[in-house]
């Protein structure tokens, strides 16, 4: 016996609201290259190795309280000793002497990294300038609140710990979001609706009563 499907309220044709209104897959948004593969754990060995290295660096600076100059000198000392032993022992075992990989000192890689950092900083500065001019009051209040929360967090932990937590989030949150994309988008959409209702109340009761001057337009 065929049972007809009864359409519920959740089966309507409302469009799915994506996080940050994205239209592309997470891998494409992150660049679609090696960095995106690392952040999304496409190669678990490389991602786990980078995470372990970052954890080791945090442990040395925060727990062991290593000095940066001391740590760099010890690393260079250990590397030179290993290269010295390897170079002198290689002929005895018919092995090739060590050589520095070209990828480490590649001029193209450094130039591409510099251009990427420059474009990101320029874009971030432009967006921050537009928000600071008060063109969108909602974004302005969100940035002010985020900076205040970040300042409070910065008082409770060191810069190294804050940097490590940010790096840890970059290596865990994207892959978790990709795995639980539907659930996260649903929660974000519901939270966004609640925030819009709350903002409308604040806007009608508080913000609209604040006197504002005329907005000056740019003269080209």
Automatic annotation (TrEMBL):
It is found in: Endoplasmic reticulum membrane. It is a multi-pass membrane protein. Keywords: Endoplasmic reticulum, Membrane, Transmembrane, Transmembrane helix. The chain crosses the membrane at residues 44-61, 67-86, 147-177. GO terms for cellular component: endoplasmic reticulum membrane. Pfam families: Reticulon. InterPro entries: Reticulon, Reticulon-like. Residues 35-220 form the Reticulon domain. GO terms for biological process: response to bacterium. It comes from the Eukaryota. This is Reticulon-like protein. It comes from Leersia perrieri. The lineage of its organism: Eukaryota, Viridiplantae, Streptophyta, Embryophyta, Tracheophyta.
């Amino acid at each position: 016996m065929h049972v007809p499907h009864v359409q519920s309220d959740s089966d309507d044709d409302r469009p799915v609201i994506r996080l940050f209104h994205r239209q592309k897959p997470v891998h494409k948004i992150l660049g679609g290259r090696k960095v995106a593969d690392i952040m999304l754990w496409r190669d678990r060995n490389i991602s786990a190795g980078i995470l372990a290295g970052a954890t080791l660096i945090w442990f040395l600076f925060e727990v062991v309280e290593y000095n940066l100059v001391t740590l760099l000198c010890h690393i260079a000392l250990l590397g030179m000793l290993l290269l010295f032993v390897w170079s002198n022992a290689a002929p005895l075992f018919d092995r090739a002497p060590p050589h520095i990989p070209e990828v480490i000192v590649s001029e193209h890689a450094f130039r591409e990294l510099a251009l990427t950092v420059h474009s990101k900083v320029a874009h971030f500065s432009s967006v921050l300038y537009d928000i600071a001019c008060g063109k969108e009051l909602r974004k302005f209040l969100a940035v002010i609140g985020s900076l205040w929360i970040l300042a409070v967090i910065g008082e409770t932990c060191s810069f190294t710990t804050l940097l490590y937590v940010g790096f840890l989030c970059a290596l865990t949150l994207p892959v978790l979001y990709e795995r639980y994309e539907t659930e996260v988008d649903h929660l974000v959409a519901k939270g966004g609706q609640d925030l819009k209702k709350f903002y409308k109340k604040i806007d009608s009761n508080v913000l609209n009563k604040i006197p504002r001057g005329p907005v000056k337009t740019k003269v080209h």
